[in-house]
Amino acid sequence: QGQEKLSCNPKKENGTHVVLCELGNPMKAGARITMDMELSVSGLEDIGDAITFHLQLRSKNSPSSSNTSVTVTVPVEAEAKMELRGNSLPAITVLPTSWHWGEVSQRLEDHGIKVEHVYELHNKGPCTVSGVTLSLAVPHLLGDHVLLYLLELGTEGGMNCSHHPALNPAQV
C-alpha cells in the first residue's frame, strides 16, 4: 500500500557481487510485495552486449519450497559521441591550366603543390571507446588523370593505420 525505501547492503560471496535487501520481518502469510530496483553498475566496457542478474527471494523462516529465483538479462549499450575534425593546409590550391603532372620525375615539386590533410577523431563521451575504425576515402584519380598524388600517411596517439596501395606509387 505505502512506499518505503529499502536498506540494501552490497557484499561479495564466492567472487560474486551480491546485494542483500531486507524486505521486512515479520510478514503476514500471503503478503504480496512489488519492488523496483535501480542498480548502478560500473566497468561494463568489456562485459559484452548483456549483463545477467540472478534474483532470489529467501525466507529466514523454516525451510520452504517457495524460495524462488529468477534470472534477468539486461542488454548493455555503450554510447559515445565521436567528432571528426579536418583541415587542409593550404586551404585552397589552384593549379595553372597548363600544368601537367611530371610522371617520370622523382622531385616532389614536379608533382604539384604539397597539400596536407589533417583529421582528428575526438571522443565526446560519455563512454570510453576502443576498437574504433575510421575509413577515409581520398579521391586520387579523376578519370585517367592524377588528381591527388598520395605521398604518405601517418598517425599519432597509438593508432594503427593501413593504407591504400595507391600511396606513393612512383616512389617520389
UniProtKB/TrEMBL annotation:
Gene Ontology MF annotations: integrin binding
InterPro entries: Integrin_alpha_Ig-like_2 (IPR048285), Integrin_alpha_Ig-like_3 (IPR048286), Integrin_dom_sf (IPR032695)
Signal peptide: none
Example of a GO cellular component annotation carried by this entry: external side of plasma membrane
Residues that span the membrane, as ranges: none
A Gene Ontology biological process term: angiogenesis
Domain Integrin alpha second immunoglobulin-like as annotated: residue spans: 3-76
Topology term for the membrane: Single-pass type I membrane protein
Superkingdom in the source lineage: Eukaryota
Integrin alpha third immunoglobulin-like domain ranges (all copies): 83-171
Record keywords, A-Z: Glycoprotein, Integrin, Membrane
Primary subcellular site in the record, as a coarse category: membrane
Compartments where located: Membrane
Pfam families (UniProt xref): Integrin_A_Ig_2 (PF20805), Integrin_A_Ig_3 (PF20806)
PANTHER family found in the cross-reference section: INTEGRIN ALPHA, INTEGRIN ALPHA-IIB
Designated name of the protein: ITA2B protein
UniProt source species: Certhia brachydactyla
